[in-house]
Amino acid sequence: MKLDEHTTIWNHTAVKISDIRHIAMSPGETMEGYRLPASCFMYSTRGRASVALDGVTHQAESFYLLHGAKGMQLEVAAKESFDFYLLFYRTTLVFSRWKEIGRLLTRSDPFSIQYGFRPSEPLGLYSCLRSMERTWTEGGKLGRLQATGLFYQFVHELLWQLKTDEEKLVKTDFVTSATRYLHSHYQDSITLQSLAEQLNYSVRHFAVSFKQQTGVSPIEYLIRIRISHACRLMAETGASLRDIASQVGYPDVYYFNRIFKKQTGLSPSRYQAQARQLQQAKDSPFILSGLHIGTKKAQRYIRHGNDNHYQYNAGGSSYMKRNSKSAILFSMLISLTMVLSACTTGGGSGINNAAGSAVIAPSASSAASVETETTNKAATRVISTEKGDVEVPLNPQRVVVMYLIGDIAALGVKPVGISEIYAGAAFTDRLTDADSLGPEYDVNPESVMALKPDLIIVATEFTYDKLKSIAPTVYVPYEKLTTEQRIEMLGKVFGKEQEAKALLEDFRKNVETSKQKLQAAGVLDKTVTIMEGGAKEMFVVQSTHFGRGSQLIYDYLGMEAPDVIQNNMNASESEAGKSVSMEVLPEYAGDYIVRSSWEGMDDLSKNKIWNSIEAVKAGRIIEAEFGLFFYTDPLSLNKQLDLLTGKLLETAGK
């Protein structure tokens, strides 16, 4: 930090305070996803917390000062009772030496950088902030004028402390600069090389460092930003998908459609249709976690002329989400209440324990109560998972399942709540009584809690973390397990080991029968290409576990893709596939083409390149309905297998 330059800039700057807030947090409470609406000083006065600003984590204790710029994202996790101030301000250069100071700002801007430190003499800063807060909130217009004067005293004290304690500064690195750049320029055409050059680093060093710090590649990070903005636009506006795609940096709407579906599991049109329903669920008065800081009303910045001022209206950019342990404790209390209620009702009905013996319903006597408690403990089983052992009911009655719906439907389990499923799924008719809870990745915990589940099944760690406090939750790592492994695990969860075994044996018999038919017809040794897309480009599958029929064709049936795909498939199991332009698509076409299809997809019947492909000319095209071929549960795989086998045999003579 160039303190001499910063001092010069502060001396030629007019300051306007936007707001001052004093916030107290309880142990375990969090504040999430808050974007700073102006430059901001954060100053802690009591307790300890982990404070993240644009991904840079600061361990804040008493009298820790942190500075952030407008647009940075603030997150706070209190480790104990934690008090702090937020001081928002805006600046304008005065006319004296404007050009010179403007040039100085281009290389040394004290208002847009992040830094944090614990001053050696903290009480001077605290005294200024405390006086500022009091005059700001209690002194009316004159008080706010006085607060502005006190702000300059605060800055003077700060610069003096910085000069004394400069070696203690926590500064941002180039990865943080890169993430800020991506958030600000996501609409632009950005490549890995252009981003690395922008920050003056080699592509390899930049890419490796970025992934080490964020967990994802720079381009994946950019995609997530774009899709997030696209979701917001689809939920809040009536703009066309083409306009939204262009707005977030994808001039090709077909490419946007594929990227969106890959990221969210939903097509853009389906997401758009459900957005309002999801918003209503989020706005439920049962939600406990969304609070505002500093005031019971949210605060919004509205531009007037060249400045932004606070307007105290509901909603807006200054909303900060706070999550408290109290919400978790409340949900646990609800679950406990349900258990206690179940223990005191039911008359003389009984259930079976693990050994198959009858359990007598509890009476009112204390002796019976003790017996009931012992029985309830026996009426569970322990399941080992990646998240540790989970105690689940022997006979769960109110199951909520996220994503793995087909798997438990195949086992004969009837859930009370499910995540969204695609139209055309093979198991839809088995779920007529289940409540839809929306997309798996955006499930509302309060909606799940309202169903009073006694068991929850999830397929991702993200969903597990959101729902684990509501009821016993079993994490089934979908991407790490085969269909057989998933069914065997779920068979243990529900005490349906024999049903699971029979289910898998029937499927294997179906596979062998199909292979014999295809072998006899001379089809089994032909090549198959699985693709999805439109008139400009196609996504070509080069994986045995991507869905769209890949698991059946390339794994169970043992058929192969053309060499240009098969070589990549053999080389890397982690790559789902690649996008190829229509011009080179014929090079990837096998003897048969399985094309993922959905309502509204591009009509290629008049496309010259498409019609030049031998498989297309010969009619060896199989349309794979997206909703059916998306899933890999036994019900879906059996139905897909029958359809594929029938279509392959139909075209065997062509």
The helical percent reads 40-55%
Give the DSSP E fraction (strand runs of 2 or more residues).
Answer: 15-25%
> Could you give the distance between the termini?
73 Å
Number of separate strands:
25
Radius of gyration: 30 Å
Mean pLDDT: 78
Structural class, please?
Answer: alpha+beta
Task: Give the strand order of the largest sheet, numbering strands 1, 2, ... along the chain.
Answer: 1-8-3-6-9-10
| Major beta sheet summary | 6 strands, antiparallel
> What form results from the Cα inertia axes?
globular
The low-confidence parts are: 280-319, 324-378
Count of helix runs: 24
Quick summary of this structure?
With 654 residues, the protein is of the alpha+beta class.
State the main characteristics.
654 residues; alpha+beta; six-stranded antiparallel sheet; five-stranded antiparallel sheet; 42% helix; 20% strand
Textual characterization of the structure:
- This protein has 654 residues and is α+β, with helices and mostly antiparallel strands.
- 42% of the residues lie in helices and 20% in strands.
- The strands form six sheets. Strands 1-8-3-6-9-10 form a six-stranded antiparallel beta sheet.
- Helix 8 (218-236) packs across helix 11.
- 33% of the residues are buried.
List the helices and strands and how they pair.
Layout: H1 3-11, E1 13-25, E2 30-35, E3 39-46, E4 49-53, E5 56-60, E6 65-68, E7 73-78, E8 82-93, H2 98-107, E9 115-117, H3 123-138, H4 140-165, E10 170-171, H5 174-185, H6 192-198, H7 203-214, H8 218-236, H9 241-247, H10 253-264, H11 268-282, E11 300-304, E12 307-311, E13 321-323, H12 325-343, H13 366-378, E14 380-385, E15 388-393, E16 399-401, H14 405-410, E17 417-418, E18 435-436, H15 445-450, E19 455-458, H16 461-467, E20 473-475, H17 483-493, H18 497-520, E21 528-533, E22 537-541, H19 550-556, H20 563-571, E23 577-581, E24 592-597, H21 608-612, H22 614-617, E25 621-625, H23 626-629, H24 634-650
Parallel strand pairs: 16-17, 16-19, 17-18, 19-20, 21-24, 24-25
Antiparallel strand pairs: 1-8, 2-7, 2-13, 3-6, 3-8, 4-5, 4-7, 6-9, 9-10, 11-12, 14-15, 21-22, 22-23
